[in-house]
Amino acid sequence: LLGYIGIDTIIEQMRKKTMKTGFDFNIMVVGHSGLGKSTLVNTLFKSQVSRRSAGWARDEKIPKTVEIKSVSHVIEEGGVKMKLTVVDTPGFGDQINNDNCWEPISKYINEQYEKFLKEEVNITRKKRIPDTRVHCCIYFISPTGHSLRQLDTEFMKRLSHSVNIIPVIAKADTMTIEERQEFKQRVRKELEMSGIEFYPQKEFDEDMEDKSDNDKIREAMPFAVVGSDKEYQVNGKRVLGRKTAWGIVEVENPNHCEFAQLRDFLIRSHLQDLKEVTHNIHYETYIRDLTRMEVC
Ligand code: GDP
Ligand code: MG
Questions:
Q1: Which residue minimizes the CA distance to atom 17 of ligand 1?
Q2: Residue pair 273/217 in contact by the 8 Å Cβ criterion
Q3: Which residue among 116, 169, 218, 289 is least enclosed by CB atoms within 10 Å?
């Protein structure tokens, strides 16, 4: 029957199409300043890009981020091109008065939806619309070991309806293993009590298999990450790490932290789903709210 419908040829057509056009994937990082957002952006690219392509020789100190700024790299694998963009944001909640401090971020997210919508309704529509919509927003939680700040819950609560939120515990190397486990558990409980739906949202699990896979991920979240863009020699191999007086924290070593888990989750196992939830849920919500506003 499959041969009759020709599903395999449809899959082949889809593969060819993505190979030709490529696709966009956009990640945003948000959180208090100094939590290692810009460093993690570099870690992500270094662990993905530089091992394959040359030309990443700079070893500069990361300046303080003062405006929303995006960095893109095209990653090519098996003939398919992915344009990976990370949107870096300035310290969130650094001001004395933090009322409405999520507004610039919310505005940025909505502007990308607006841009996409304009292209979609354009009569001379492009065959492939460049997609700058934020597919996931990594929210950095300070490794205090105590609880979430009010601002953290406030931000996630407000934004979880317009973007996929993925909370992470920043600078996990500053906590012991026990502290990390305890803190992760506490954060999960607090998120649940505040009614914050982070990605992958339970309501969008498609079937039992999906649910059981995602349950495992949800139980492992928020990922406790460490970032670095410096390389060190460990057992004859060059690894990204942080050198301390008592040894090297290897950022891609799953025994040291959960950076590799986060990366694989984002750009391997859940990439397509993040794009779909963005398009089918968050973008649709944006459009629905627009039409509602016009009616009023
Ligand atoms: P941002 O303000 O959130 O963008 O933070 P930066 O990436 O500029 O980092 C602020 C400081 O924290 C720098 O000195 C980094 O070297 C350091 N840092 C970044 N990531 C980590 C980490 O995972 N662990 C530790 N201990 N320090 C980090
Ligand atoms: Mg920064």
A1: 36
A2: no
A3: 289
